What does this fold into?
Amino acid sequence: MSNYLRALSVNPPPRPASGRRGRGVRGGRTNIFSSPLFKDLVSREGEAPAEPLHIKLGRSLAFPNSLIANVVSKIFLAMRLVLAIVLTSTLSVTSLAQSVCLPLPRLLTTMPMGGTVGSQVEITITGENIDGPEALLFTHHGLSAVPKLDANGKAEANKYVVTIAADTPIGIHEARLISRLGISSSRAFSVGSLPEVSQNGPTTSLGKAMPINCNSICNAVMTDKSIDHFSFDAKQGHRYIVHCASRGVDSKLDAVLVIADAEGRDLVVERRGGTLDFTATNDGKHILKIHDLTFKGGPAYFYRLTLLELPADEAIPTFPSTKSVSSFSWPPSGLEPNAATQEAEPNNSNAMAQKITLPCDIAGSFFPAADVDSFEFQASKGDVWWVEVASERLGRPTDPSAIVQHVAVDAGVEKLTDVAEFSDIASPVKLSSNGYAYDGPPYDGGSLDIIGKLEIKADGLHRIQLSDLFGGTRNDARNGYRMIIRKAAPDFALAGWGLHMELRNGDRNALSKPLALRNGMTVALEIVAVRRDGFDGEIALMMEGLPDGVTAQGLKIPAGKTRGIMLITADEKAPKSLADVTFYGKSVVAGGEVKRPVQMAAMAWPIVDSWGEIPSPRLVKGLPISVTGAEFAPISIAPKEKKVWVATAGQKLTIPLQHTRRCEFSGTVLQLKTSGAGFENVPRFDVSLASDSSEATLDLAALKTPPGDYLIAFYGSAVAKYRSGIADKEKTPTSDTVEIVLSEPIAISVIPAEAK
Amino acid sequence: MASLPESNPTEHSRPIATSQTFRFAIFVIALFQCAIVPVLCADEQGKPTSFVNDVIPLLTKSGCNSGVCHAKAGNGQNGFRLSLLGFEPKEDYEYMVKDSRGRRVSLAAPESSLLLVKATAKVSHGGGARLQESSAEYALLHDWIRNGARYDLDSAPKLVSLEVQPNRATLKPGTQQQLKVIATYSDQSQRDITKTALFETNDSAMAEVTASGLVTVLDLPGKVAVMVRYQGNVSVFNASVPLGAAIDSLPPSKNFVDDAVFANLKELGVPPSPLCDDTTFLRRVSLDIAGRLPTDDERTRFFASQESNKREVAIDSLLRSSEYADFFANKWTAMLKNRRDDASDITSNFAFHAWVRDSLLANKPYDQMVRELLAATGTVIANPPVVWYKRVKEPKQQVEDVAQLFLGVRMQCAQCHHHPFERWSQDDYYSFSAFFTQVGRKPTATRGEDMIFHKRGMAVATNVKSGSVLKPAALGDAIPAIAADEDPRLKLADWMSSPSNPFFAKAVVNRYWKHFLRRGLVEPEDDIRDTNPPSNPELLAALEKHFVASGFDLKSLIRVITSSNAYQLSSSPNQYNIADQQNYSRYYPRRMQAEVFLDAIDDLAGSRTEFPNLPSGTRAIALPDNSYNNASPFLKVFGRPENESVCECERIQSSSLAQSLHLINANDVKSKLAKGNGRADRLSKSDNSAEEKVRELYLVAFSREPRSEELKASIEFLAEPRVDAAGNAIDPQKAKQESLQDLIWALINTKEFLFNH
It folds into this structure.
């Protein structure tokens, strides 16, 4: 059972009878969705089913039409397609007044942001587009929440009591809210072992300093243009560790930590997101100041302040943090938790190189400043090894670089010959260049770490020198690394995120996109692969456990390529539902089937101007998909017939399209381009936003499409006059909202001309 | 541009000093020198006129190949182009003899040569007449043309050295000294090139020099130098100008600073002012170290102390304060160009400023700070000094900024030609830039911001003029071979922090000396060169030695300067040292700089200026970048820099009408005085006596009690009835407030408040 559903089951959960469309929980004394409130929330105009939430536990794919589904599924498995959806400048121009993307539910804050294991904690949440909240869910079954009741037994708005079971792992979990529009974006929720308190009002001056105890955590929120003050009693000679979790728990705060004397005079400062390691020089009250690097504040600038007292010789503990997008490619499958070998200093020079044998798995540290770690080994001509180094992916601010040299000795003099130089893991897709218009995702799946091929060109002694290109002047023993040199172990790692749109008027939105589907809507996920050790095969993308009425068609990541698209469509009549979906990629490696999970990434915060505020993408746990059952997509475009469209090579294929329009639009024309390997060069074409149908004509002669099976989709963007589906809909003003429009996937089989 | 001096072809030297005796003595010396040195001009030796050794120097002396004339960047002047100061004789020959179909030089009729008819303005010449037809210079050029306008770069003897005679002298105010310049060539020959050498004094307030090398010492005592330039070589004449007054007593020497300063005063005969009193000292040192007035607590503690070392205690306390770090971070970040060009710069600017500030607070050794800056790698958040590479992107700019800021060397000229005042060649420039050629950049999620890393490879730079490929070298010092894997910037940092480095420590101690004493031992503080000698070389050397020995400890440097009695002299002059501007015989008063002044007004008015994006109460000295100048007319008017230059001279410390008007009637000053719960408002509601109120104001403003006449006048002023425009008495409470506002305003406008003295 998924963690989300486990969480619901504590509530307790409504259990659907099966995963099939149209069936769901009905009645049941404990069904949280059967309340009058819930019924009000799901009722709406039109034909969408006013049914309770369906929660799918099964893992089977559910298609609206099993026959079509089977055909499409086969094609999907067989074709070498990729929907290279880069929404280019063909898209509609938006005005400044327009919103970007239809409203999606986002959980923004919880206060406090965590609690002590084995305790109960009352939290207050905030979010956007979370009207009609139904349940607060967590990624671990040890966490559960119930609405907080007032003295009259009535649920208090946005307040929950979270129970943290004693067996909940220490670390960062995630919370999401299910509400009228469906599943929200996630927010980190920390579970720790120390007692926790919350800030008791403003602490923005020395006089308002809040006393805190050693070995405790304080949850707090920064006030704009302010400095928070806390006080603690220190003893001379005792060592204190101060840590402020902020970016690592989804906060926008770039924390600055200051320890000052009792009069507030600064003694030591840490501004790089690290910890303060302070040994008191006198007994008495000390002041702890916290502020943002640029003195920003507000609800998004929350933090968890930890004050520890540690013995002088004890290592500073590692504080939990969310993971960067780049870390999805670490560790390699099956890697032992701990390295077999430790680097042994001094090993900075060729003369002091540490002797190793291949394969190897070594842990070390880029310390002290300008550290170079040199290792030497014997290798034979023709040997092929793979070198992988992780440091940046371990969360360190490092940039590992490795040089391999062959060592020959002539008359007692060493002659070094470069064999290989290793640097970054390239981003699988072109990244945003932060230009005026969108030209790539702001998710960097690459890394400053290393995965590289080492081909030995001569027998004999070799050296590998490992250094940190960022480490010339920095002394931080925590900048560790792990280096693995292995024989080829071909493999792949996958990550995905909601596809972003390009708008040529300079839109720079960076939005978290929870998969809260509107009925009739097709959404796209962009999937990237980091290929390891020469793995070059195609990768199929699969989802299991979809909600009823939802289909997902993954376009394979073609052989040698690193990008694919997953299209997820909610049927127009799909019931309100939620499922925790299993998303993975599948391929054949060395004759055997290999499945690897797709790790999802999302923006920690919706950012409407990525020039003014730098997006903070990170990996998230799980992939819940919901269907709202409360709102429709503004427009659905689908082929008039759900079938495989057969065409002859060199001929034209005309596909009649059916438009299902559910609102008015700004403008009358929707310009469509075509995605899918072999079809990207289809000239853009216009379809009428005022019409219920159109045609797409594909000139296979011009495209020179060879025979084969293909999957394509048409895409564009339209400015919908969006009206929220809340109660008195007619009185709700519309707002111009630009949104990606994707057709349902269309399967095409091109047959040779002579076979006709 | 100086025109060629009128000269007689037979004239060699002119009387040297006003005194007959002195003149005679010099004449004898000159005769003696003439006797022992084969000093003759070309014609006199019967040798043909040399293009390289005669013609080019003549053009230089005449100003023809200056940057504003025919050596102007681009294409010279009106189609005639020369290399700057004749540094490229081969090119000059092409320009003069071969360009424009050779019409500039007429071998058949030399006098018709365009070169001559233009120079004498016989035909229209934008530069006017540069030569007289009757002059020796004209004759020289004419002869060169008549003899075939020969090119002799390869055959002519090379200039080896330059000597000015005398090279050192003690000159009383008002006297003169004729200089003589001897050039030595590769064939051992020597020539008197006084007429064609260029002369320039390093302090025109102390001495003047004519184009023919006659030095006239004015009435300021001290040290002055005259730089002599000739064909890329330089030499210096150093003059000591004593006042010659009797010195009965000197303050006791507290450290080597005093030793050097007082020895110099003794040598020059400039009696110093006495030591300043405690109140003056506390205010002075607080403004200089922490950029603020003394706090109430500091005043109380200091005045209550009976300890003999209470001044040292106060210095140490100020050095521990976070305002010290704020104030000096303000100084450094301006020179390091922490400039806001775009709203998105805020994070990097705040991070960079904070890195400087925190480093100063922690008293990170100066060489370590510079090392972290020079060799910065990584991201803004993880390693803020990389922001410098965001601001200063081009290797050339990096070279020039580093040299000027950290080494006190101005390298800009050497990018395009040999430095005219210095020994730096283009090779020196480009080999220095080679340190920065392996700076790699990777894009980040922030627009315009890169991750900085060391790009593997051999660091080399190409001299754009010669095309030669150069390895890293530091201002003439060879650097051990740098492997491809090594970041050359770390090697540069190693070289800088070497105790024997002749530039690094000297530059910063001179800069800091100027911060506290108003005038650098070398002026400008970032133009340290042989031709611009220090006013007190022994002191500069001692400070440098101390700083290196202390482990590049900036606080120690400040401590040794501010605890000296030389620093603690009164600013009130005596009858002798009123004109002294160089020898530190008294403290030279300075107007508070913009940020300090604004904070001081806030302190006195009991208000605080609000700044965007910063917590209420943030002092102006703690502002992270220049963006606040836009929101604060006060800062702009009083000269806060825009952080565009590596030179401290970007800060405007001169006075202006706008400043006066601002203090008299600017709204921001008025509103500070009238601020609710401000000092005037608070005192108006206080039950304290008028005397107590006046005493409070004087203590805050001047760190001293009011004198009896000041007290009396102030109390009387506060007691005066106030009437409105119609002559009616205004509300008593309001009247009290307004009177106090006026009194505070009057105090703000006193020189005693405005200046650190």
User: Anything to note?
Assistant: Residues 1-96 of chain A have pLDDT under 50 and may be disordered.
